[in-house]
């Protein structure tokens, strides 16, 4: 059970109730993370929009994005994020070996040089924020500056969500989703 009550649609401020209704009308469940973040109505929509932007509007390869998110979830030991994004990773082509070795990516042989550079950068950002020069240079050899910033945004955003999920002991949904479309309300592309 979460440490504070979830904001449910029937007791939420009007703007939050309307947002939750819109999410449901679009086929997306109102996840417990949104019900916790609804305690701060002025920021909830912005957080949701940032997450949607990261998932649907950026140019970073979606498989690399999910690798970074899953590694961040592992570093934080955040089961909520781990479970939600494992589906995305599988749908985007992550192998079983990659899923199993995401937290021990160095030397696992399961990742390409580009994927290893992404994971090393993501690990350093998630653990402390500072990135070693050799890590930065290795990643720059695989992607442009704009994609590097997108990657840092992704790790930072999911690090923030993970820390909120953990601090408030946000519960996992009773229903285990079987596809990403059950989370986003959008069909897979």
Model description:
The protein folds into two domains: 9-57; 62-167, AhpD-like (Up-down Bundle), CATH 1.20.1290.10. The protein has 189 residues and is an all-alpha fold. The mean pLDDT is 93. Helix 4 (62-76) packs antiparallel against helix 5 (79-91), helix 7 crosses helix 8 and helix 7 (113-127) crosses helix 9. 62% of the residues lie in helices and 0% in strands.
* CATH architectural arrangement of the largest domain: Up-down Bundle
User: Considering DSSP H and I runs of 4 or more, what fraction of the residues is helical?
Assistant: 55-70%
Uncertain segments? none
Oligomer: single chain
Largest sheet: none
Global morphology: elongated
Relative strand content: under 5%
Question: CATH fold name of the largest domain, please?
Answer: AhpD-like
Class derived from helix and strand content:
mainly alpha
Distance separating the two termini: 34 Å
Mean pLDDT: 93
CATH class of the largest domain: Mainly Alpha
Radius of gyration, in angstroms, nearest whole number = 17 Å
Number of domains: 2
Secondary structure: elements and pairs:
Layout: H1 14-25, H2 32-37, H3 41-56, H4 62-76, H5 79-91, H6 96-101, H7 113-127, H8 133-140, H9 145-167, H10 181-184
Helix pairs in contact: 4-5, 4-7, 4-9, 7-8, 7-9
């Amino acid at each position: 059970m979460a440490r504070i009550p979830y904001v449910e649609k029937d007791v939420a401020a009007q703007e939050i109730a309307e947002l939750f209704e819109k999410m449901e009308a679009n086929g997306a469940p109102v996840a417990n993370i949104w019900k916790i973040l609804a305690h701060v109505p002025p920021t909830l929509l912005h957080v949701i929009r940032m997450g949607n932007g990261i998932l649907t509007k950026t140019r970073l390869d979606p498989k690399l994005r999910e690798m970074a998110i899953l590694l961040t979830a592992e570093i934080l030991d955040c089961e909520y994020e781990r479970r939600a994004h494992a589906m995305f990773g599988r749908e985007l082509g992550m192998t079983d070996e990659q899923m199993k070795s995401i937290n021990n990516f160095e030397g696992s042989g399961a990742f390409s040089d580009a994927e290893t550079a992404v994971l090393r950068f993501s690990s350093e950002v998630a653990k402390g924020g500072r990135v070693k020069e050799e890590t930065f240079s290795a990643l720059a050899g695989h992607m442009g500056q704009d994609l590097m910033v997108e990657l840092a945004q992704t790790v930072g955003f999911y690090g923030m969500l993970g820390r909120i999920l953990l601090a408030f002991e946000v519960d996992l949904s009773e229903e285990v989703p079987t596809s990403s479309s059950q989370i986003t309300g959008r069909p897979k592309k």
